[in-house]
Amino acid sequence: MTARDIILKPVISEKSMAGIADKKYTFKVAKTANKIEIAKAVEEIFGVKVAKVNTVSVKGHLRRQGRFEGYTPSWKKAIVTLDENSKTIEFFEGMM
User: What is the pLDDT of residues 13-27, one digit of tens each?
Assistant: First the structure.
């Protein structure tokens, strides 16, 4: 898997935006990716130094459309903490 296959998209939420001050960035990642692969992918794509990676498996939520119901897909979230000497990720700077 390439780095672009591992990091799918950033998670833009109020809680994830609050972590940017502490150099914590949140991404939606491939379900099969492990912490080492995620750290290498972030370093390759954004050119930063990763200190640690925390992962969370997010379960799908029950959704209804009239009398029909189903679940949204489950996915994996990674909270990436950058090294204190590392530069910030410029993509997130415009979000603040």
Answer: 999 999 999 999 999
Partners of 27 in the β-ladder:
10, 78
Q: Report which of 81, 66, 73, 84 is spatially closest to residue 25, judged by C-alpha positions.
A: 81
- 12 — phi, psi (to 5°)? -105, 100
pLDDT digits (tens, 9 = 90+) for 35-78: 999 999 999 999 999 999 999 999 999 999 999 999 999 999 99
C-alpha–C-alpha distance, residues 19 and 83, integer Å: 14
**32 torsion bin: left (phi>0), alpha (psi -120 to 50), beta (else):** alpha
- Rounded-to-integer distance, Cα 10 and Cα 22, Å: 17
Domain covering 3-86 in this structure, CATH number: 3.30.70.330
pTM for the full predicted model: 0.89
pLDDT: is 12 or 92 the higher one?
12
